[in-house]
Design a protein that fits this description.
Length: 260
């Protein structure tokens, strides 16, 4: 069994580890972690390493799970101790060539962009590997990611777009759900109930798009009966630039990601 090491045990690493453990396919004793905060490994239920060096020397796969701005601090120690070890980076905006420059030219690297829905096993995850990653290594990474949700192997030049579409869009969707619920509160429904109903409705709508593969506009039209209630809401969204507001939000993320 391969040994997995998480460098950084924050939100995303703990969500991935939870997925791995829940799948029943991994033994906790094969999962290791190092974080500047002691106690994090225990919280995640993995074996604690006391340094980056010991983590690198123990595992077959290192998952770089610190914030992108912390990478320059940790990569020198990884370079020194992990030659030949498979590197998996989940850092937003950091390219494979950035990582290879900081490590070594022929480092096997898989770049991953997860999303926070990994916390409930419903992540949407992109990955791409460089030419130094062997097929079996890529399979190990994909299997690990599949325990957190759905995976897409993508060309690296699509990562900024993916980041906006799947990495950041959960935040937009949570805000949308809350906006639906707040309006329901204004109309007289208790907030907790409104949130539950709004989330369930968003969940079901996404499921219908995915399962029927019908165009979202066809589905929207099917809900708008002539002279009915829904068309009033749809026209109000259009009047208030709903779609172009969403477009701008997505493109703002793409732009920021390219500048990271
Ligand atoms: N969260 C998301 O939705 C999401 C989505 C896609 C991609 N990502 C990527 O996932 C990565 C992790 O994000 P996150 O949200 O999990 O961040 P996070 O919760 O801040 O986790 C990072 C962890 O690394 C620790 N750390 C900081 N410096 C360290 C060092 N030198 N050595 C070891 N550990 C160190 C942090 O400790 P302190 O708290 O003490 O600093 C923290 O526990 C980022 O690169 C991000 O771009 C996150």
């Amino acid at each position: 069994m391969a040994k997995y090491g998480f460098l950084g045990l924050g939100n995303m690493a703990s969500a991935i580890i939870a997925g791995m453990k829940k799948s029943g396919k991994y033994d906790s004793k094969d999962i290791f972690g190092f974080d500047t905060l002691s106690g994090k490994a225990e919280e995640c239920g993995v074996t604690a390493c006391d340094s980056i060096e010991s983590l690198c020397k123990t595992v077959d796969i290192i998952v770089l799970a610190v914030k992108p701005q912390i990478l320059p601090k940790v990569l020198p120690a990884v370079k020194e101790n992990a030659e030949g070890t498979l590197i998996v980076s989940i850092a937003a905006g950091k390219t494979i060539s950035y990582l290879a420059d900081a490590l070594y030219e022929d480092a096997p690297i898989v770049r991953v962009m997860p999303n926070i829905n990994a916390r409930v096993g419903a992540a949407t995850v992109a990955f791409c590997a460089n030419q130094f990653v062997k097929c079996e290594q890529k399979k190990l990474v994909e299997e690990m990611l599949l325990t957190t949700g759905t995976t897409f192997e993508l060309a690296e030049n699509m990562f900024s777009i993916f980041t906006a579409l799947a990495g950041s869009s959960p935040a937009f969707t949570y805000i949308y759900i809350d906006a639906l619920a707040r309006a329901a509160v204004e109309a007289g429904m208790p907030k907790a109930q409104a949130l539950e109903i709004a989330a369930s409705s968003v969940f079901g709508s996404a499921k219908l798009v995915m399962e029927t593969k019908e165009h979202p506009y066809v589905l929207a039209d099917s809900v708008c009966s002539p002279g009915g209630t829904t068309i009033e809401g749809v026209l109000s969204l259009q009047e208030n630039a709903f779609e172009s507001t969403v477009h701008k939000a997505v493109l703002a993320v793409v732009d920021k990601d390219k500048r990271l």
